Amino acid sequence: MTVGINGLTKIFEGPEGGEIVAVDDLDIDMEEGEFVVFVGPSGCGKTTTLRCIAGLESPTSGEITLNGEEITYEEPQNRNIAMVFQNYALYPHLTVRRNIGFGLKNRTDLSKEEIDERVDEVAELMGISDLLEKNPADLSGGQQQRVATGRAIVRDPEVFLFDEPLSNLDAKLRKHMRTEIQRLQEQFGTTSIYVTHDQEEAMTMADRIVVLNDGELQQIGAPTDVYNNPANRFVASFVGEPAMNFFDVKHENGRVEHEHFALEISDEMAEMLAGTEELVMGVRPEDLEVADDGIDMKLEVLEELGSDNLLYLSFGDDEMYIVETKPTVEPDVGETVTVRIREENLYFFDDQTGQTIV
Ligand code: ATP
Predict the structure, then answer these.
(1) Nearest residue by C-alpha to atom 24 in ligand 1
(2) Structural Rg of the chain based on CA atoms
(3) Ligand 1: which atom is nearest the Cα of residue 215?
(4) All CATH 3.40.50.300 domain ranges in the chain, comma separated
(5) pLDDT digits over 4-56, tens only?
(6) In this predicted complex, what is the ipTM?
(7) Which of 109, 176, 219, 326 is deepest in the core (most CB within 10 A)?
(8) pTM as predicted
(9) CATH number attached to the domain at 245-350
(10) For residue 235, which of 64, 34, 39 has the smallest C-alpha distance?
(11) CATH no., domain 3-238
(12) Chain centroid, CA 329 distance in Å
């Protein structure tokens, strides 16, 4: 199934009569079998968009299509779309078998035996056959998650919607369930939309990432493309962990000046920046390195992550910049650290609009 979102807008009434624009004129076209991941800060409209697609929320304007056919105001039960929620939404008084079978309750064409058979198949697929007669309260978080996913799969939907399905699980189980969901999606080839706060999940699972902010689409593209070619400063700061560093600079004839340092940039880059004066320069933490010669900064915090170290540096004020280094680089807090910027990976943004220039 292809999924089309055209000009989708959802406005809620605010607490004092004002308007909350949760989704603002959103356009996204999803291909058959695609795995699309929505990311963005809390309140940017991810869940509202999913709920509109599921039919749980009625859009203020715009259109939702499945295979080109409009379903904007269709009842949820008439859309063959299954949603997996963050809190699993299992029925506490029903056994696992009946929870999974619940997805089929409207299927008058299936006998009780056929439903049982389908539930058994899905339970086997999800590795929960031995839990079928238990109640949700007797299951671990990971097991409940499997039941919730099983209940979605049993319906053999044309579209899967996942709203942060793994966020209540511990890190190890999350990774495991992540690969399971990917495996299932590959096996069924069902178009899926997945909301997450987890960058690693987004980067590893997505065919394409959709970055939202304030209800508006910021960028849509393959994870590496969004990472390497962010459309604007917001995307640059949101995608990538630790976040990109930003320096307010002035540019003149191939020379970039910051309050505390200056850089000569390539002729090619200077040409692209021609006509701009005030800019924001972006440097990813991995593109800053500790060197003998360069910019002197003060180490405020050292974070040892095992595989690498993060140095939080300042020019003596409140602004912090992050350098990602090998674990063997471990200067003392308070010391001066000299940093070199790898000039081949610089980004420049318009200081007013935030749009990427280079
Ligand atoms: P999170 O990552 O925290 O789940 P989100 O990106 O999913 O956030 P939404 O839940 O879609 O964001 O909310 C978008 C905006 O709409 C927020 O400002 C939220 O407060 C508002 N909102 C959502 N549902 C309602 C509602 N039923 N009534 C009023 N405002 C709402």
Answers:
(1) 48
(2) 24
(3) 14
(4) 3-238
(5) 999 999 999 988 889 999 999 999 999 999 999 999 999 999 999 999 999 99
(6) 0.97
(7) 219
(8) 0.92
(9) 2.40.50.140
(10) 39
(11) 3.40.50.300
(12) 31
